[in-house]
Amino acid sequence: MRRLSALALTVALTAAGCTSDGAPSDPESGPTVSPMELEPADPPAPFRAASRRGLDSSMVAQCSDLRGPARNSGLAVRFLMPTGYSAYDRNGATCDFTAAAFGTEFYVSFESQSTLKSEKERDLDPREDEGGDDSIGDISYAADVPVLGDHAGERLDYYCYCDGQELDYRTVQASGVRLTWITPHGQQARRKPAYDTVTSSMALVRSDRSTCHSRGRTALYRPPVPQTESIDFYSARCHLYLRPGRGSLHRYAEVELRPSVSLAERAERLRRNKHVASVRYEPGAALLRGRPADRLTWVVVREKPGPYQAPTGRWRGISLATPEVRVTWTARPHRWRSEADDARRFFDSVRVEPAPLP
Q1: Mind listing the domains of the chain with CATH numbers?
Q2: How much is the pLDDT for 216?
Q3: Best label site of 10, 67, 142, 288, fewest CB within 10 Å?
Q4: β-strand pairing of 276-288 with 177-184
Q5: What is the pLDDT of residue 128?
Q6: Partners of 221 in the beta sheet?
Q7: What's the mean pLDDT when you consider all of the chain?
Q8: What pTM did the predictor assign?
């Protein structure tokens, strides 16, 4: 819901007739050049955080690029996650974080983008003070100002009555990293300490690792590319939707820190599931980063569509677990022949902090 409200502005502008070149297309009018074309911003380039304080803590968040090999940058954003916020989802080169308070979130993107100035002129200025739902106001823009610590870039502020919510947006951009900070209208000052924590610690590094936070601990792991479509975060685990994606509830990978249910208990629960067969629990039969780990394998069989239109078929799952972490990979049996090495690399990549990030 919070993520939807953050995108409401884009939806509204599209519905109002904005196209990718800023003008309605006419197939009979021939090629046209719009005076409102977006200006490309500087491409992403690695940079250090303005402040290193706290960057060896277990509350460091890191988001790696999930896009396929043709577009993957090999980069990741890294910053301190402020108190009261938690990871929400990740997709492509964007990661989203939310707080429990209504209308409070931020998201970070690190891909080739347009300048905030050109987006303001095309998308915001024509709609300022129109009134009604999705109305825009209090637009303020500055260039060449400190935005990510002492890294200079663009800053764009505006008010949006978005989808029935009164929200203040602040978007800053420098060196190919864009941070969009959203708060309820009039509460930016209250969230300034959290905003300063993120901006002063923001860095763009060469890495293919991401973080998973749960139960006061952090794991660093390598999301498999190109298999990972997106990642959702829950209080106890990080859930990776593996392609073909959300169309199946049984095709996924997971990292769970300090699992509350042992693998032996998980095995017993699976044996009671009428759709599960071939459950095999083997204590101490595997290694996870050189440590003895329990192993659990099972097969899900669905002869009829399941809840939420889950497809029919068979899926094989494997979990490895230590007291610190449980790691899971599932796939259809024929995929295991091509993905066994990918699953092994995923398992081996998981490292539980609080050791400082490299």
Answers
A1: 2-16+36-206 (3.40.1000), 210-352 (3.40.1000)
A2: 75
A3: 10
A4: unpaired
A5: 83
A6: 210
A7: 84
A8: 0.84
* Residue count of the chain: 358
Amino acid 350 reads V
Place of tokens 């590319």: 225
